[in-house]
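dumping these here so i dont lose them again. two proteins, back to back, each one seq then structure tokens. dont judge the mess
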Amino acid sequence: MPKMKTRRGAAKRFTVTGSGKVKRGKAYKRHQLSCKTRKQKRNLRHATTVAEVDSRNVRRLIPYL
């Protein structure tokens, strides 16, 4: 059976933590930042985990991470 290919776009966007959860960056931090409050922008800095229902699909895209 051949090796599975990693989806490179997904590999750049997601990482797997030590406990096996999938980590992602937050959206809405690229442009139009002048109309967002300081608090909004500060809370967008930190990464968060992917929801459990979606993590199975993401793990299929990145089988070796």
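---- next one ----
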Amino acid sequence: MGVVLAGVALAVAVAMTTEAGRATVRFAKGANIERQKVVWPNRREAMQVTGLVIVMVILFGLYLWLLDSLSFYAIYDLILGLQ
């Protein structure tokens, strides 16, 4: 166990002495600052948006079904004369 901890400590020390390691730490700090700025929706807003998405998916599905049915009718009945 001590060898693993020593290896991790050595890796951290090497990473902190390189430019890539310092850039990684700066990136992580900046990402954390941006994460703290995120405003999460409350339960009511989340439920409203979820309901809206469900309704839109159903409407879009019905629209695609209608287009599919019309194109099927147009191709097989009107153009090919098959039933």
